[in-house]
Write a structure and sequence with these properties.
The complex is a heterodimer of chains A (398) and B (290). By secondary structure, chain A is an alpha/beta fold. Chain A contains 13 helices and 12 strands. Chain A has 2 domains: 198 residues, Rossmann fold (3-Layer(aba) Sandwich); 154 residues, 3-Layer(aba) Sandwich (Rossmann fold), CATH 3.40.50. The longest helix of chain A is centred in the first third of the chain and has 25 residues. The radius of gyration of chain A is 23 Å and the shape is globular. Chain B has a two-stranded antiparallel sheet. The chains are: A alpha/beta (398), B mainly alpha (290).
């Protein structure tokens, strides 16, 4: 009996420490006098890992801010977590970041399903989420007071690209090759909307599965439909297969692709050069841009994260963090979630290395602007059209 | 257009069949469906990529190096993972191959990263020849056809006329009897895994040249190859080739006329064949005495 009592005491002590530590972590406001904690999640391993690089980009901006003295004396601390593109895992890492690390805000975050899995949890805990690296209408409609979207919606991007093809390139026969999921279908909506405005219809609309390794029947169907331009909302591998297959059957349309395929260096390399000439949308300046901010970020990346390839998506991670830093500066020394929300809601025409961003308390989709590029020799960028917005954007009409 | 559809369907179908042969060789010997087959082939393809792109060796040297690696990898997996299993059931062995699959994918991700890589063969998809009016064939397709034909003939002769081939068949039918007859069953298994891994690597290099290389690039071809093997018969090499061709043609026809249905054709085939003729269209159905 005495032995049992002897064991109960240390057990109670351990339990007390555990409970108290959990309580203190849970109550953490996300910042203190010395630091503000921000975090990102995304696939760092597994098949979707190339998209996860965007979530390591914010670390560069944090390093720059810290080198310049921080924000009102507070340093930025960035956490990046791997969720393996698995919504169940996203819940685990976000919960850990909120309750254990006590993060103040999230920035970027990849995967539509992953984001949808945690958006309510973040709102319940009053955690701000700036610039999700996803383009999902449900994030902005109805307005979620804690989510501030920056990435243009796929339907807006598709509409702008279609307008370019129809008006500037004077092509009337348009085929669509889209991934058979929310990503591809949103783009299809945008293409249809734009074509309908011009009293046109696509000559072929072909859904494909992301994992499909044989697209020959689809390419033959496109060729047979007479499509002179093919618009693609696909994974990088599927896009490469499409181009290679088209080459085998001597089919040479104008290829137009989504911003998710705008890492021209990568696409040129993995397609064996076939990507040259492809037109894409883009939501961030080219990584090789001489814009002063891009030069600054590249230099900082070389200094602080030399192991990273300065790819488009890595640099996009920098772009996603810019408006959060701007809002934190404007929120003042007396930081609170409310102060940060107020600053974010008054963001007007903020521009870093991406499009101009405006958020109001009634509208949390920050932009619908994209640039249009063509892939040049060796994966270089040829700017075809500067930042352009979509006058048909449905979310603007609300 | 119809002729081209058939050509493209046959090309991808024979490519599935090539990979299906790799699945069948292991199944023919041990009745184990090797779920790590795709990842073994993926790892070998990454080795080929490393030799070709990083070390910049000539293709044929890279090919030979990759074949040696593939054989050793197959033998290693069998020796290190399957052989130590104590009184293994078939299900247990299959679960071990699933574990090996995860492990190999992790190794590839760790060594080469998750980003896609370009892989090219000397048989280019963009070198095309017009067979008939409106029917184009490319070097890649010709290479696939020739490789499959050569392998099929070789394997037919091997399993029918060589001691090792007969020993492999005997091992599959009754391991104990084979042992009593003096067959070194463990060596037969090692050979089967090494040989299967080599054929899988050849097929994977064809797939890689058509798409890109990343740690997950062989997951989907494995499913299609498995469907081809089930359709033709998991015990029949000619059956797998015919099964692959039928699957490729079916998928292409569906892809052209009903694109929404194409992704599920392979799985429908598996279900229908398993319901109607469990041993496949061309394999003999062995009934074992209990």
């Amino acid at each position: 009996m005495a032995k049992k009592r002897f064991l109960i005491f240390p057990f109670m002590v351990v339990l007390f420490i555990f409970v108290m530590s959990a309580v203190s972590y849970g109550a953490a406001p996300g910042f203190d006098d010395k630091e503000i904690r921000i975090a990102s999640w995304g696939p760092m391993t597994g098949p979707a890992a190339p998209w996860g690089t965007v979530n390591r980009g914010p670390a560069v901006i944090c390093a720059i801010v810290n080198e310049e003295g921080g924000i009102h004396g507070r340093k930025l601390k960035h956490f990046a977590r791997d969720d393996q593109y698995n919504p169940a895992q996203t819940k685990v890492v976000v919960k850990e970041l909120v309750e254990k690390q006590g993060v103040f805000a999230f920035v970027a975050g990849t995967g539509s399903a992953c984001g949808m899995a945690v958006k309510d949890y973040m709102a319940e805990n009053k955690i701000i989420w700036v610039a999700p690296a996803i383009s999902v209408k449900e994030l902005i409609s109805p307005v979620n007071p804690y989510i501030f979207a920056l990435m243009p919606l796929y339907e807006d991007e598709a509409s702008i690209l279609t307008k370019y093809v129809v008006d500037k390139m004077k092509i009337k026969e348009i085929g669509v090759l889209y991934q058979n999921d929310a990503f591809g279908k949103a783009a299809l909506d945008g293409i249809r909307q734009r074509l309908a405005k011009n009293n046109m219809k696509a000559v072929a609309e072909i859904p494909i599965e992301a994992t499909d390794k044989d697209l020959s029947s689809y390419i033959l169907k496109l060729k047979n439909s007479g499509a002179k331009a093919v618009m693609m909302w696909l994974t990088p591998s599927a896009a490469v297969i499409a181009l290679k297959t088209a080459a085998t059957v001597n089919y040479k349309p104008e290829w137009v692709a989504s911003e998710t395929l705008s890492d021209l260096g990568l696409m040129h390399r993995i397609s064996g050069g076939l990507w040259e000439g492809v037109i894409t949308g883009a939501f961030v300046l080219p990584p090789e841009s001489q814009h002063p901010l891009m030069v600054k970020y590249r230099n900082a990346s070389t200094k602080y994260t030399p192991e990273e390839r300065q790819s488009l998506f890595y640099m996009a991670g920098n772009m996603f963090t810019e408006p959060l830093v701007d809002a934190l500066k404007r929120a003042g020394k007396n930081l609170s979630t409310e102060a940060a929300l107020k600053a974010l809601n008054s963001t007007k025409n903020f521009q870093g290395i991406g499009p101009k961003v405006t958020w109001t308390s009634n509208q949390h989709q920050g932009t619908d602007s994209i640039q249009i590029w063509r892939c040049g020799p060796n994966g270089s960028t040829i700017l075809l059209q500067d930042w352009t917005s979509n006058e048909l954007a449905t979310w603007k009409k609300k | 257009m119809f002729g081209q559809l058939i050509m493209e369907g046959l090309a991808i179908g024979i490519c599935y069949a090539l990979f299906g042969i790799a699945v069948v060789i292991i199944y023919k010997t041990s009745e184990v469906v090797n779920f790590a087959q795709g990842e073994m082939a993926m790892l070998s393809t990454f080795v080929a990529f490393q030799i070709l792109t990083i070390y910049q060796w000539p293709f044929w040297m890279a090919f030979i190096g990759t074949m040696i690696f593939a054989v050793l990898l197959g033998i290693f997996i069998e020796f290190a993972f399957l052989r130590p299993a104590k009184d293994p059931s078939l299900l247990g062995l299959i679960v071990i191959t699933l574990g090996a699959e995860m492990l190999l994918m992790g190794v590839a991700g760790w060594k080469w990263g998750a980003e896609q890589k370009e892989f090219s063969l000397p048989f280019s998809f963009s070198n095309t020849h017009e067979l008939f009016k409106g029917v184009i064939i490319n070097d890649w397709t010709i290479a696939v056809f020739i490789t499959a034909a050569f392998l099929m003939i070789f394997l037919f002769l091997f399993f029918r006329y060589t001691k090792l081939g007969v020993a492999m068949r005997a091992t599959q039918q009754n391991q104990h009897a084979a042992r009593i007859m003096g067959i070194r069953v463990e060596r037969v298994f090692s050979f089967a895994w090494g040989f299967s891994s080599m054929i899988g690597a050849i097929a994977a290099m064809f797939f890689a040249a058509r798409s890109t290389v990343d740690p997950a690039f062989m997951m989907e071809p494995f499913l299609r190859a498995f469907a081809a093997a089930v359709l033709g018969g998991l015990m029949s090499i000619p059956g797998v080739v015919i099964g692959g061709a039928i699957l490729g043609l079916l998928e292409n026809m569906f892809g052209y006329f009903w694109p929404e249905w194409k992704p599920i054709v392979a799985f429908l085939v598996i279900i229908v064949v398993l319901c109607i003729r469990p041993s496949g269209l061309f394999a003999k159905h062995y009934v074992k005495k209990v």
